[in-house]
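Request from the bench team (R.T.):
"We need a structural guess for the complex before ordering more adenosine-5'-triphosphate. Sequence and SMILES attached. Just send the tokens back."

Command: build protein-adenosine-5'-triphosphate structure.
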Amino acid sequence: MKNNKESYIVKVSNLERVYENGGLKYEALKGINFDVKPGEFVSIMGPSGSGKTTLLNQIGALDKPTRGDVYIDGLNISDYNESDLYEVRRQKIGFIFQSFYLVPNLSV
Ligand SMILES: Nc1ncnc2c1ncn2[C@@H]1O[C@H](COP(=O)(O)OP(=O)(O)OP(=O)(O)O)[C@@H](O)[C@H]1O
Ligand SMILES: [Mg+2]
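Reply to R.T.: structure attached below.
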């Protein structure tokens, strides 16, 4: 039996993501906290532009937080390098994108 801290499959702590474009800063995520236990189904809902994709990119190990922590299966991936994030994506995460990014000449 895993200890309590590790009993979350996803845990997000004080998560912030600030986008910077041409000197302009935009706070897309401002201090997000939540956790998901193994076997739980969770929907993230909100209006367009509220930060759903930004959040999914964080817990999908596709993007890094500006501040705060993301735990996947007990691992704090917040300061992982690209190679470590690749391993997390390969071993821990399945991700279906809003656009499917299918390769038309392949069957799978
Ligand atoms: N790369 C980026 N650079 C600057 N701002 C961005 C970037 N990506 C997203 N944003 C901004 O961050 C905010 C959140 O965007 P996000 O795409 O996460 O929203 P969303 O909830 O997924 O929206 P939708 O329902 O339309 O998919 C928006 O204001 C968006 O314009
Ligand atoms: Mg989106």
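Two things stood out. The pocket of magnesium ion (ligand 2) is lined by residues 52-53, 98 (CB under 6 Å). The beta strands are 10-21, 24-36, 67-72, 75-76.
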